Amino acid sequence: MGLIIVGAFALAVLLFPAAPPQTVVVLPGPDGKVGTVVVQRDGEQTVLNTAYSTSRIGADGAENRAAMRNSDVKREFGSALTALPARPVSFVLYFVSGKDELTPASKVALRKALDELKHRPVPDIVVIGHTDTMGGQARNDELSLARAERVRKALVAQGLPAERIVAAGRGEREPLVQTADSVAEPRNRRVEINVR
Amino acid sequence: MFIKFTAPTSRWLATILLACCAGFAFAGDAGHLKTVKGSAHVERDGKRMPASVGMAVLESDTLVTGADGSMGVTMTDNCLLSVGPNSVLAIETYAFNSTTHAGQFDAALQKGTLAVISGKMVKQSPDAMRVHTPATVMAVRGTEFVVKVDE
Known about the structure:
Chain A is built from four helices and nine strands, in the order αβββββαβαβαββ. Chain A is an alpha+beta fold. In chain A, strand 4 and strand 5 form a beta hairpin. Chain B contains two helices and twelve strands. The termini of chain B are far apart. In chain B, strands 1, 2, 3, 4, 5, 6, 7, 8, 9, 10, 11 and 12 form a twelve-stranded mixed sheet that branches. At the A-B interface, strand 1, strand 2 and helix 2 of A face strand 1, strand 6, strand 7, strand 9 and strand 11 of B.
């Protein structure tokens, strides 16, 4: 009888091996904000939503909720945290009315953006051009693309990889500031550079 | 005529719609490797390729590191992921529509360490991203976190 029970237990362990132990820790963002991770197991939920809140599940399946210290997180997860890619960044450049020419202030801003982008090993870049509502839609589609292309060429000229840069024009469809038609709005005459 | 969908039916329809949208918006890369250190490989279609910076990561790829390895990926929705040494991370499903920011992302950490900074699709719909481990499923709601699965 005892043998049967031991045998059944051994079989159960073989068929349903215990899941390996695991640890989950929620970290504060650069601005101190903390999001939420919901750890779900067999219909049970653990909500982690404060800085360094932790769920540790041991080999026996028991959960320990003691918060991990920052120093311990760095020791246990240091390699993964160091390997995180640089956070995506965006730049906005503004243009002279009706032209694909940057405003003087944005010429300076473009140089600053380039300096920062050069430090990224393999940037993936999306350049999107926009216009204000002066002029017709078709003309603004062309103008927005011309603005994006102008910036794309400036990036390539500074040695950024052409094959990793995509340029597109959105015309007057996505204004930063909503206006009536035929309104000159400097904040809408812009190009966004989104870098991953 | 008025058709009233039951909750499961509408969920089904949403899934099908999402799959269609994803199909259009997402013929290409899920992300790119931005950092690679030590022994690091990408497994794709049963083949094992050495990882290199700039390499595309696709849906169904598995990232594998050795004892001295690590790698970091930037997904197309701006989600950042990285694995430390002795890790196996499968990109099980990935779809992201860059216009609507709708998407779905399932990643499975079989062993090792993982760091995550969630991206745009999680901002758009809170349950779009899930991280699976042998013991649990994690729903990610706009956050930074780390996970370790022991061997």
